[in-house]
Fold these 2 entries.
Entry 1:
Amino acid sequence: MPAIVLIGAQWGDEGKGKATDLLGSRVDYVVKFNGGNNAGHTVVVGDEKYALHLLPSGILSPGVTPVIANGVVVDIEVLFHELEALSARGVDVSKLLVSANAHVITGYHRTLDRVTERFLGKRQIGTTGRGIGPTYADKINRVGIRMQDIFDENILRQKVEGALEQKNHLLVKVYNRRAIEVNEIVDELLGYAERLRPMVVDTGLELNRALDAGQTVLFEGGQATMLDVDHGTYPFVTSSNATAGGASTGSGVAPNRIDRVIAVVKAYTTRVGAGPFPTELHDEWGEFLRSRGFEFGTTTGRPRRTGWYDAPIARYSARVNGVTDFVLTKLDVLTGLEKIPVCVAYEVDGVRVDEVPVSQSDFHHAKPIYEEFEGWAEDITGARAFDDLPPAAQDYVLALEQMSGSRISAIGVGPDRDAIVVRHDLLT
Ligand code: GDP
Ligand code: IMO
Ligand code: MG
């Protein structure tokens, strides 16, 4: 099973980092193909807790070659900071490869992210403020800076000049900020060149050769399906393709080489930032999920919005991504609830709708139609086989499986590395 994509099925923070880590010892490469340091993956290994942002979670597995592919936007200062922090904790980071085609987040992208959010006022997206959107905008607008540009001072200077010509007008005249000096940016980037040189390669070629040689490559998505710029709740999305298709364009590995698509889905739903969220709870149950699930952003520390499981969203994800297996996480968080509501469809203007509506305003108005399932009181964090789960927890999982469009192959029952029930091997 050589090429596997792992993505989030909801609005992020489903536990992709932990799921990647679970497979880490059995794969040769772990590839980040979209997003940047807006991601936040918490991985617990024994007594150690790691928070990864820009680096793929696979970096924690000895033997794995971590790859930052062309679809990622890279804040180089953050890159070195994360590498140093992991090194200091004894993690071997020497194998990291970075695509020569990946785009670079600069100081002006971070500034623009923050000022445009402020100017949006009530229409704010609630971005992570890391410069992600402006960097992808420059990429599409063909005024971006790529990793390879850093190795040629002339080209770098021309490109930064070109980019800043427009942006300084905007910063000074519209946003009332100071202009950014070309030299400030060029000197900073050139200062990284020597350290970057050994890790910057043609990652598309490297990955295709690895697949030719029968090695196993895991593509780890950042963000999630409902935050995808094409398939998510636009404009309340991130600026990249977080769905399975993004693994191809974001890495240079063709779609017909991908064998399996694993979607990570929480046993309830969370979202950080603004935008529609039909099953959101504003009551004590929302607070229950937030405090029991420790739902606070890994990147920004913001409290996550919380709500019940939304089956139409899972079905939508199964369809958009071609999901072969779900990993259901955080089932343990639901322990102690007497009844567990699950959204099975929506009501839009008095009409039952079974699928995620294509109209954004319909989705905004969609009221969840709930079905209730029996809860369980037993602690399930020690369960390692499906039969170890109480009957009500088994029934809950089977009901979600039946309505979510693909099989549930693994079930997370706690944050620890081994707190998982595997029903079907994810790699074979
Ligand atoms: P990611 O962005 O998808 O990698 O997810 P995050 O790391 O942002 O958020 C998931 C959080 O849930 C992390 O703190 C994980 O340690 C934790 N987690 C993952 N799986 C489980 C699980 O099955 N049960 C519990 N209780 N926590 C989990
Ligand atoms: P992981 O990989 C949850 C959200 C932000 C905001 C929107 C746009 O940990 O699941 P951006 O800075 O990307 O332009 O912000 O997307 N967002 C995430 N929410 N998990 C993430 O990543 C996210 N990355 C971005 O909160 O609403
Ligand atoms: Mg996260």
Entry 2:
Amino acid sequence: MEITRLKGIGDKTARLFYKLHIETTDDLVGYYPRDYECFAPPSDLCDAAVGEVAAVSGCVKGNIATRHIRGLSITTFEAVCADGVLHMTYFNMPYLKNSLKRDTQYIFRGVLQKKGSRYVMEQAKMFRPEEYGRLIGKMQPLYSVTKGLSSNAVTKAVRQAIEVTDLSEDYLPEEIRQSEGLYTYAEAVRQMHFPDSRDTLVKARERLVFDEFFLFILMIRRMKEDNALLPNRCPMIAVAETGRLIEALPYKLTAAQRRVWKEIEEDLTSEHAMNRLIQGDVGSGKTILAFLALVMCAANGYQGALMAPTEVLAAQHYETLIQMKKRYHLAVSPVLLTGSTPAKERREIYERIESGEADIILGTHALIQDKVVYHKLALVVTDEQHRFGVRQRESLAQKGRDVHVLVMSATPIPRTLAIILYGDLHISVLDEMPADRLPIKNCVVDTSYRDTAYRFIEKEVAAGRQAYVICPMVDESEVSDLENVVSYTEKLRERLSPSVQVASLHGRMKAAEKNRIMEAFAAKQIDVLVSTTVIEVGINVPNATVMLVENAERFGLAQLHQLRGRVGRGSIQSYCIFVSGRDRPETMARLKILNESNDGFYIASQDLKLRGPGDLFGIRQSGDLRFSLADIFQDAAILQKAADHADRILAQGDLPADEKYAPLRQRLARMATNEVDFRTI
Ligand code: ADP
Ligand code: MG
């Protein structure tokens, strides 16, 4: 059912929901909270932690004053609490002057700050005591929102959606549900949105995480044939060209790179088609291995394709390859095909691909469109594999007949999990960094350090270097204390010397615009790039030496590590500054793990250890394995169980015709047609 049929959702509100990709009541039911708010009884000021959300009871006294500064209205007043005075500030809420009752008790809930010896709260929520009393002990859902749409509005819509949706059909076979002690689907959905308690929430999440893994595994197992045993229909021989390239490179391959290259070369010449995953931390040098494979493929008279998740990255690979071709006189004919390739050029490229004249094809998803017909595709490489859906990778592979498959990923996942997730792929681990790298210097700081950090960035820029600044959000939303790209860029322009060129980049920009900015950054026309995490994927600008991450506490450590991988990609000393919006000791301790090590694998495991299994709704560990709730690290035990059940069922045949599997079959069929594509593998 369309969301516009719900109460309180007109066209205007609906458009805000569309921004969140919510169009139907089903979408709402599956739009899980990003967090929950727990209402604790009000505390005294001296008992509340500074920097944390607190609820304090206070009486509004004295003058309620409103000032206007540069179009912003600022309303301030004092609330007298049992053990002190709380100074309240509100922005753009001038009506408070009339609506607030003086000499009346309110509960103020917000982040408690201390400025000098004064207790301060900004934009605190206000409740009458009886109203607050009713909320104590309850967990209220908090949804990710967009400007103009409050979490409350989403809550109301979800409540209605759950009422009108029939949740009674459970696709999960009863036997599995029983044996794992899982909630029914209906119970899980209700408790996920509106938990009775923390315990029911944990159970609800467990069931929904199980679902995600179970369906995912069934889908990939059914889609893929047993690739490891496919015959090699595109046999190759080792060629001198690759050895020559390795010799000519300005650097020496690491031992790990040499080992993995040997494995690839053996695969391509063996009896079976290659099906290999290269797992290597950011900066370990995966690209050159892909290029070597592509060069070998071309020298054998075949075509090879490399698909990257973003245009920026595809273009970068193309540039690198063109440079190599020129410098080392490689006998290859590469082409670049992306969504923004102009129509005329695109037609020419299609022809060159179809005729076989192009032998190395680089690009984005554009490579798997129907119009692209390959001449004799023998090898497909996907870079930053975790960014693609399973289906997308398979589509590329199906452009040829039993082609060789090479996938590259920087996501450090434990081997046992990799086998569950990637099935029959052979795994090569690049566990060594190029020798010329200086370890990145890291620091974890609070917001008071910002100015020092800005001066540092200016200094590096003056020395000819560049910097990234990462913020968690695109534009201002209800969650206003998070730094966001758009306003941050403005602010930074004011704070940095005018000679420093600052630009912004975020996921909502058009691809062509993103390309333009990335190119300008690579060409050093931009000194400081303020970005969301779109930057984390594969970008290689070795001249960028500083990364400053705002609200670092909002990111999983593994993701921070990926982000950090954008600097330290050359022989120049690089720096990473993690700014935490919270100075709680636990938060700082967690972030400081990043200081201890530059090893992605170690970081992920330490993070997990520190947070412990109870911390279910904290930060997602893996920013890029796109399950909506599940986390492959944290939920490894559930993943294993889901895999066991999936295998047990499939062992009886490709989803046995049994009546009890009927809803499951339907659900999988629906997933296939809805083009739901899991982005994991
Ligand atoms: P990633 O594994 O993150 O994809 P890249 O392949 O982009 O890393 O490599 C990062 C940088 O390191 C590139 O500039 C590349 O030229 C360089 N590089 C790759 N291998 C080596 C090596 N063995 N020694 C020195 N530099 C290398
Ligand atoms: Mg890469």
